[in-house]
Design goal:
The complex is a heterodimer. By secondary structure, chain A is α/β, with parallel strands linked by helices. Chain A is 37% helix and 25% strand. The longest helix of chain A has 18 residues, at 191-208. Chain A is globular, with a radius of gyration of 18 Å. Chain B is an alpha+beta fold. In chain B, the strands form 4 sheets. In chain B, strands 15, 16, 17, 18, 19, 20, 21, 22, 23 and 24 form a 10-stranded mixed sheet that branches. In chain B, strand 16 and strand 17 (577-584) form a beta hairpin. In chain B, helix 2 (13-51) runs antiparallel to helix 7 (247-294) and helix 11 packs antiparallel against helix 12 (437-458). The chains are: A alpha/beta, B alpha+beta.
């Protein structure tokens, strides 16, 4: 059974949103008065459902800060963020916790796997935290698709970087979140393994309709996106649709030059 | 999440074990104490019930004043005709009288046979086959005339055989007896090193100076007669100085003093177990805090995956619980082994404890487990709560630190408050009025707890300067490694303080004990210097037991002796309260020098039949002045009114006299078998080798006593204190060992944390030896911080206690303090061995890549 068939069979009610995630006038300021730093200035954007959106920018552009705020990991100094129609910027810790269980998935740069759990246990972690059991067969399908089914009982220390990241992707996909956030997912991988992981992310967008937001500085990664947002000095300065790596690179240089 | 918690523990096995060890030791002490005391208790109960098993009723002397065993007084005796009268009663089937006393066995060389401080029991055996006799013959026959039966234990140990002669000293000089039989007592394997000597009744009465008297009468009723009836019958013919109890009631009564000693021993040892657990809690809290700081990214990741704060809390608590439970179970069984080992240890030194099986009761299991798990949980609370405050964003940020606790601002204020509260409670316990012993100890204990916690928290502020100062030697002798070590210790003051705190507690207590001992010793020495005007002292072999006056009397008759002043001692009652009373004879006025407020030195020789003197404190609290009447009730029930002829001011270290002192002649009228606590001798020629030899020669016939010069006397009295001190040090050493594990733990964790840093140091050229040295110096600096804080705190606490207790003055045990400081350094070096090796063995390349 292909991933697609499985997904269609078990898919929850189709989301009615075109834009599952929306940010309005989001600002982030660190420090006060003289020593204040504006990491984000009044950023507004919409993330389209079922698409891979990349956020790019030079260091200091605020891209990581933006993603943390979109994902509910951080609070903006001003502005609102809405996920699946619910405003998350005013939520308290309990509500955010529930949000993370059902609507948000993460892939980290440094994999962030728990070292004492096996690959399978790591993948199941979000569900066991929520106290739910995985749907029969879904786990196996996922492990198969991701390509670590034969290493499922190995610990992270026994897996290569690429394998670990694939476990992390499987973990993020398991509960089929509304939005999957990937923070420099290929930052710690070589080019070959990077491609594997990126293809995996692309596949999940195409076959599962998984909305994904990826922060990256890698033009190859961005080239896979449906839409790329460029940040500089805390503001969105450019937006392009599907591009090649070379075009992305050129756009980056243009943005950094400013 | 529970799986995560458990797998977490398994993944960090070494760390978990090291942390758990902190609890194992404390629980082992608690469990060992309970097993030991329960077992001894059971054994003694068997002994006491065995002794009375044939008796339905026991008639004994009734003392008007509570008699403390071994303190010089005895219950009155009854006439031996009473036994015949009881035998004649209609419901009585059998009645046998008995006498008992201290029978010191003396070997062929004239030396007293003693095993540790165990008693030397002597008694009469009316009829070997009587149902009242708990002994059974192993060899030989029951004694008659100049014969004695002795116990199998002493016979074996001293290679004594049937038919041989052996010396026995009772009230008078040593006498020779023939060993007629070897006996064994009932079910217990040995009576804890006590020696038994049995004689026939007339011999016993002669030996213990109770002619025509009996100490007890054992009675068996006719069959089918109810106990109450026999008791009533017997009571009707008893004189007022006698009482009758049922056999079981008598056994209970007999057991009372032993029971109260065992309870005291149990509480005493449990207190030290508690201290070890308290120190263990610091170690656990510290280890958990460090571990959680290192697991920040892991915990944050779980939060991003949707774990709630409560789930994180539960996970940490479960980890703590599992570790605590495993450690407690280990400790429980370790304690069992410890108790068994102690029995064997005591046996090896000749002080065989009565043993009728090891008692491993349910209460022991429950108490040990609850204590261990409880302490672990309490220690886990704060670190667990901090863990819940890890923000999810820490999963992405490199090197994210735990957010400052909400209460961080209040730390200084809070810890000062806690410390102040602690001192307040301690001071209240010391100086508060109307507090019973339990109250005093409770306030002091709680106060000490608060002080330790408060000072540990406050110490964070002095870590930097203290580490700089204490680390200075490291920079000199350790080179670069030493300098780095000193900086490392100052890097995270909170962590250094927590680690050092555990050692601080142990050292504070050790110092406190040393200060008190030094104080007691110096004031005692001062008191003896002031009061003693004699040449020699005569005391019991063990320095503290009261002995029959025969020895002193013999010395008094020796040519050359100018005077012997005796201090008789015993229980008496006055103003409704029982206390130790003493008596002196006329030579006292030239052998003791007291500071008289009313009366003079001559008062001691002019007491007459109704004169008494007392100390300033007693006079003040009972409003006594010259001529005031004081009515004393003696153990035989008789009362006499005395008049105060003198009031003296005792020196800080105390005096040899009790609350009220009367003349020896009068005392002997009211105490049939008086006892001397000490006797002091003035001899022509003063202290000299010849005089010493002469006195020792006289005492050959009284092996129960010995003669000492002033210096020897002081040292002998203090030697008991030194032994107690050593026991206390050993018990506190346990807590020091626990804190040693704490230091090892912290070092292992910080080495782990600094893997990349150590890799970098090695990469730029630091050798393995230098790395080891760095860790070692860091360990020593941390230990020294704990040591210095502990010693200072111990001195402060000691000073407070001394100010409260009048008979101790403040003295600084400088030598001991230096030893403690050296010991602290040794602890630091030992603690560093394992972590230093780990640090040195890090593979440079792997370490550099460590994330």
């Amino acid at each position: 059974m292909s991933l697609l068939q499985f997904a269609r069979k078990e898919a929850p009610d189709a989301t009615p949103f075109d834009c599952i995630l929306a940010a309005v006038d989001v600002s982030k300021r660190y420090g006060e008065r003289d020593t204040a730093v504006d990491a984000l200035r009044s950023v507004s954007l919409e993330i389209e459902t079922g698409q891979l959106t990349a956020i790019m920018g030079p260091s200091g552009s605020g891209k990581s800060t933006l993603m943390h705020i979109l994902a509910g990991l951080d609070r903006p100094t001003a502005g609102t963020v809405t996920v699946a129609g619910v405003e998350i910027t005013g939520m308290n810790d309990n509500e955010l916790t529930r949000l993370r269980r059902e609507h948000i998935g993460f892939v980290f740069q440094f994999f962030n796997l728990l070292p004492m759990l096996t690959a399978e246990e790591n993948v199941l972690l979000p569900l066991s935290i929520a106290g739910r059991k995985p749907e029969r067969g879904w786990l196996d399908e996922l492990l198969e698709t991701v390509g670590i089914a034969d290493r499922r009982s190995h610990r992270p220390s026994e897996l290569s970087g690429g394998q670990q990241q694939r476990v992390a992707v499987a973990r993020a996909l398991l509960s089929r979140p509304s939005v999957l956030f990937a923070d420099e997912p290929t930052g710690n991988l070589d080019s070959h393994t990077s491609d594997e992981v990126l293809n995996l992310l692309r596949t999940s967008v195409d076959e599962l309709g998984q909305t994904t937001v990826m922060v990256t500085h890698d033009p190859h990664a961005a080239a896979l996106a449906d839409r790329i947002l460029f940040l500089a000095d805390g503001q969105i300065v450019k937006e392009v649709r599907e591009s090649t790596a070379a075009e992305v690179l050129a756009a980056m240089q243009e943005v950094s030059g400013r | 999440m529970t799986t995560v918690a458990l797998k977490g523990l398994l993944g960090r096995k070494i760390r978990a074990i090291l942390t758990g060890l902190a609890i194992v030791l404390g629980v082992a002490m608690v469990s060992g104490t309970l097993v030991l005391t329960d077992s001894i208790d059971k054994a003694f109960n068997f002994i006491y019930t065995d002794v009375r098993k044939g008796s339905d009723v026991v008639v004994s002397g009734k003392s008007a004043v509570t008699v403390n065993q071994g303190q010089g007084s005895f219950a009155p005796t009854v006439a031996d005709s009473l036994a015949g009268k009881i035998r004649a009663l209609p419901d009585v089937a059998r009645a046998e009288g008995g006498v008992n006393g201290t029978a010191q066995l003396v070997d062929k060389n004239g030396k007293a046979i003693t095993f540790g401080g165990s008693p030397n029991l002597g008694f009469s055996i009316a009829n070997g086959d009587s149902p009242f006799n708990p002994l059974h013959l192993v060899e030989g026959h029951w004694p008659k005339g100049n014969e004695v039966v002795i116990d199998a234990n002493v016979a074996k140990r001293k290679h004594l055989k049937l038919g041989e002669t052996i010396g026995v000293q009772g009230e008078g000089a040593v006498q020779t007896f023939r060993i007629a039989g070897i006996v064994k007592f009932g079910s217990a394997s040995a009576l804890g090193g006590a020696t038994l000597a049995g004689f026939d009744i007339p011999t016993a009465q002669r030996l213990f100076a109770k002619p025509g008297r009996l100490d007890e009468i054992a009675v068996a009723a006719k069959p089918n007669v109810p106990e109450a009836a026999v008791l009533k019958e017997i009571r009707s013919i008893l004189p007022p100085t006698a009482q009758a109890r049922s056999g079981t009631a008598q056994a209970r009564e007999d057991a009372k003093q032993t029971n109260s000693f065992i309870s005291f021993l149990r509480s005493f040892l449990l207190a030290f177990g508690g201290i070890a657990l308290f120190v263990g809690s610091f170690v656990i809290a510290n280890s958990l805090s460090i571990t959680i700081a290192q697991r920040t990214r892991e915990l944050a990741t779980m939060r991003t995956l949707g774990a709630s704060r409560r789930q994180v809390l539960t996970s940490i608590v479960v980890e703590g619980l599992v570790m605590g439970a495993l450690a407690s179970v280990t400790g429980l069984f370790a304690g069992l082994g410890l108790a068994k080992g102690l029995f064997r240890l005591f046996d090896a030194v000749g002080f065989t404890l009565p043993n009728s099986g090891i008692v491993f009761g349910t209460s022991t299991i429950v108490i040990a487990l609850v204590a261990g798990i409880g302490v672990t949980l309490i220690a886990s609370v704060r670190p667990a709560l901090r863990a819940t405050r890890v923000p999810p964003i820490a999963a992405v940020r490199e090197g994210a630190l735990l957010p400052e606790s909400r209460f961080a601002r209040f730390r200084t204020v809070g810890s000062t408050l806690v410390t102040v509260l602690g001192f307040a409670s301690l001071l209240w316990g010391l100086f508060g009025p109307h507090l019973g012993t339990v109250g005093v100890l409770a306030y002091m204990g709680v106060g000490a707890l608060f002080i330790f916690v408060g000072v540990a928290m406050l110490s964070v502020r002095v870590i930097r300067p203290l580490a700089a100062a204490l680390g200075w030697p490291a920079t000199r002798i350790g080179g670069v490694a030493g300098a780095l070590a000193r900086d490392n210790a100052r890097r995270n003051p909170q962590r250094t303080a927590s680690t050092a705190a555990a050692l601080m507690i142990g050292l504070a207590l050790v110092t406190l004990v040393a200060v008190l001992a030094a104080g007691i010793t110096s004031s005692f020495k001062g008191a003896v210097d002031k009061i003693w005007v004699a040449d020699y002292a005569i005391t019991a072999q063990n320095n503290f037991s009261p002995i029959p006056p025969a020895a002193a009397n013999a010395v008094a008759k020796t040519p050359g002796v100018e005077g012997v002043a005796n201090v008789r001692v015993g229980d008496a009652k006055s103003f409704g309260k029982a206390f130790f009373a003493t008596a002196v004879n006329p030579p006292a006025s030239s052998i003791f020098k007291l500071d008289w407020k009313t009366g003079s030195q001559q008062t001691m020789s002019r007491l007459g039949s109704d004169g008494a003197f007392t100390d300033k404190g007693y006079a003040k609290s009972h409003k006594l002045t010259l001529g005031s009447p004081v009515t004393l009730t003696f153990t035989n029930g008789k009362r006499k009114t005395f008049h105060i002829k003198g009031i003296f001011d005792p020196p800080a270290g105390g005096s040899p006299f009790g609350k009220v002192t009367v003349s020896q002649a009068t005392w002997d009228q009211y105490n049939a078998n008086p006892r001397n606590l000490y006797s002091f001798v003035r001899i022509r020629g003063g202290e000299s080798k010849e005089n010493l030899a002469r006195l020792q020669g006289v005492l050959d016939a009284y092996p129960i006593a010995k003669v000492a010069t002033k210096k020897q006397f002081v040292n002998n009295q203090i030697s008991g204190l030194q032994s107690t001190l050593n026991i206390l040090y050993v018990l506190l050493a346990l807590s020091v060992i626990v804190s040693l594990f704490g230091i090892v733990n912290t070092l292992v964790l910080t080495v782990f944390e600094r893997t990349r840093e150590i890799g970098m140091l090695r990469a730029i050229g630091m050798t393995r030896r230098q790395v080891r040295r760095m860790i070692r110096h860091e360990s020593v600096i941390t230990a020294l911080i704990g040591g210095v804080l502990g010693i200072v705190l111990g001195i402060v606490l000691g000073a407070l206690l001394v100010s409260r207790v009048s008979f101790i003055q403040f003295a600084l045990p400088v030598v001991s303090l230096i030893v403690f400081a050296i010991m602290t350094i040794v602890v630091g070096i030992l603690a560093a061995i394992f972590p230093a090796r780990r640090a040195a063995r890090l593979n440079v390349l792997e370490a550099l890549q460590y994330e």
